[in-house]
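General statements about sequence and structure are easier to judge against a single worked case. For one protein, we set the task of working out the structure tokens from the amino acid sequence alone. The sequence in question and its structure tokens are set out directly beneath this paragraph.
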Amino acid sequence: MPTILVIDDDVQVCETIASLLARLRYGCETAHTLEEGLRKLETTDVDVVFLDVRLPDGNGLDALPRIRLSPSRPEVIILTGEGDPDGAELAIQGGVWDYLVKPSPIKQTTLTLHRALQYREEKLSRGDAPAVALDLDGVVGTSPSMRQCFDLVAHAASSDANVLVTGETGTGKELFARTIHRNSTRRAGNFVVVDCAALTESLVESTLFGHRKGAFTSALTDRDGLVKLADGGTLFLDEVGEMPLSIQRSFLRFLQERTFRPVGGTQEIKSDFRLISATNRDLDAMVERGEFRKDLLFRLKTVHVELPPLRSRPEDLKPLAIYHVNRLCEQYGVPHKGFSPDFFQQLAQYDWPGNVRELYNVLERSFVISGLESVLYALHLPQDVRIKITRAAIARPATGEGGIGSESASHPSAADGNGDGSGGAQDMVPPGKPADGAHGPDAAFTSPLPPLKGFKRLMERKYLEILIGQTQGNLQEMLDISGLSRSHFYALLKKNRL
């Protein structure tokens, strides 16, 4: 009997779906919060999840990777009260079965559920494919978004399909391209890099296809081009978005036929290569602007691996730092270094616009600054990075988000509601005395005083803001510090629109 999990904070919706599933003789589990749903997925074998988007403790779309990678690997159907085209796009990219908007007709909901269960049954009947151990040398990441990328790498490596790797500068596009090649049947062949930004109309044919002796003045001997070198291996088009429009047309025919003619040659030559491309540009937007050929994009994008920016996977900062610093220690022949907690805390405060490439550069600079010291501290981070982190921390309270380093964190006794400084205030790190009393709890004591009811509401919201920032959103830690029950805590969040 299939088991369906409904994650929705609307009790009536849960009861309606539970009643429908009972008539269908399916098992049903319900959860009114995201955390409760994720907890049930760890202990219950679930076939399909009905997932709401807006939940008291988070966004359902953000949890999609964790849900789909839970032990039973369930199918997911979004059931939301507020349809959003961008949200639907994110959901489909995240691998959901369907995106339904409430109120969804019973017939449509039932049909979608049946199709999802039929698909799951067929998938399970085929049996799990034998596990393949990927060679991920140099690729570091444990976050759900990276695990999804690893799955795509496995799929890409098992075929000869063209692959397009996209992502911001510094996310590791070439590293992933080499990883796909290293795990493919072409691993024994060459991995040939073509820098598309350096291609010019006058040199493209000679560079890619080679030339025959006497084809032009300086052609003193026959010379193979990059395409011939990639025969039996992989041709990697780096920064394909920079390829001039004038070259794209001739490139399209060559990719389709896999044949070329060297400059000065008379015969067509075939090259059996696997194509992988990479870019940090939005090729779809370039197609709309007429800057990139749509038919060429179709050729490149059989399998699409989109690498997440480092700021969206903070849980990977620590393993990345440990991996790279250990590698530096081995390179320089020194004992492995330890890390102070404040070092990782500082790394987490930075948004890493240059992604992993920038992180590795900062780590190497920190390694050099630390000299022979056996432990890396936040003090070893380059001054320019520490300044950016400090500036961001100072500016953060002005956005109204509160959190670690906010002025209100330096007045724990007023915020915890007990007047005794309890409730985790010992963990708050004050940034120093505020410049004035215009922000934080002190604002409530300025003249004229607000009514007592307004004062209590202000203190309550400030307390919650500080609590969320101090614990970085860790639910159990917030409950332990506040002494509140889960339901009471969620009620306060909803009341204060946090």
